[in-house]
Design goal:
Layout lengths: L7 E2 L5 E2 L5 H34 L3 H8 L5 H29 L15 H18 L4 H18 L12 E5 L5 H8 L3 E5 L3 H12 L7
Parallel strand pairs: 3-4
Antiparallel strand pairs: 1-2
Helix pairs in contact: 1-3, 1-4, 3-7
C-alpha cells in the first residue's frame, strides 16, 4: 500500500506542491529538521543531564546509586542504546523524506527550522511506532482497530471478500497508517488522509520501505 504524500490540498481541494507554498515549506522543513536533531537532543535531554547530576553528587551517594538495585550508570547506558536505535529510524525517515520531496541532502536551508513543539512531535511519533506497529502494541491495536474492521465487514457482509476492492474506505487522520493498512489488508480499497508531516514521513518509511518485523 504505497504512500504518496508529496502533495497537499489547498482550501479548495486543489493539490499543491508543499515546497511552493511558504507556510507548507516552513512546516515541512521544521518536521525534517526535528528528525535530524533527534539523536543529539534525546541524548542531551534524557541521559546527558542526568549523568551531569549523577557525577555532581557526593561520592557516597554516587556509590549508592551505582550499585544494585539502582545501577544508574548501566541504566543510562541502556537508555543511550535505545535512543540510538530510535535515532537510526529517525535518520532513515529523514533521508527518505528528503528524497520524497526532492530536497538536496547537501542543502542546509532547513537546518534549525524545528521548534520545541516539533521536537515534542518527533518524540511522540517515534513512541507511537511502539503502539501502532510493534508486537507489544497488538492488544491496544485490537481494541482500536478490531471494532472498525468488524463494523466494515458487517456493513458489507453481502460483498464477498474477493470483491471488497470495489468498496472505497477513507481513513481521516490516518496517523502512522496501521488502521489504513489493516483495512487494505482486509481487501478494501483504501485512502488515508493525514495533515502531520511527522506522521506522513514515518508512515512513508513503514509502509513503503519495510517488508516485515525488524526489517
Amino acid at each position: 500500500m504505497p504512500v504518496h504524500p508529496q502533495e497537499v490540498a489547498d482550501e479548495e481541494g486543489s493539490e499543491i506542491d508543499p515546497l511552493s507554498d511558504p507556510e507548507e515549506r516552513r512546516v515541512l522543513f521544521a518536521a525534517l529538521d526535528s528528525f535530524r536533531q533527534y539523536r543529539q537532543a534525546a541524548h542531551y535531554n534524557i541521559t546527558h543531564l542526568r549523568r551531569q547530576s549523577f557525577y555532581s553528587l557526593p561520592l557516597a551517594h554516587m556509590e549508592l546509586l551505582a550499585s544494585e538495585p539502582f545501577s544508574l550508570p548501566k541504566t543510562l547506558d541502556a537508555v543511550d542504546a535505545a535512543i540510538d536505535a530510535n535515532a537510526d529510524i529517525a535518520e532513515t525517515v529523514l533521508a527518505l523524506g528528503l528524497d520524497m520531496y526532492g530536497i538536496d541532502p547537501g542543502s542546509t536551508e532547513w537546518y534549525g527550522a524545528a521548534t520545541s513543539q516539533d521536537m515534542d512531535k518527533v518524540r511522540s511519533t517515534i513512541r507511537q511506532l511502539y503502539r501502532d506497529w510493534a508486537a507489544e502494541g497488538a492488544h491496544e491495536r485490537e481494541a482500536c482497530c478490531g471494532p472498525i474492521l468488524a463494523g466494515l465487514n458487517r456493513a458489507f457482509e453481502d460483498i464477498s471478500p474477493a470483491k471488497r476492492s470495489h468498496v472505497s474506505v477513507l481513513v481521516p487522520g490516518a496517523g502512522l497508517g496501521r488502521l489504513a493498512f489493516e483495512i487494505c489488508n482486509a481487501g478494501y480499497a483504501m485512502e488515508g488522509n493525514e495533515i502531520s508531516y511527522h506522521q506522513l514521513l514515518v508512515s512513508n518509511w513503514i509502509l513503503n520501505y519495510t517488508s516485515g518485523p525488524r526489517s
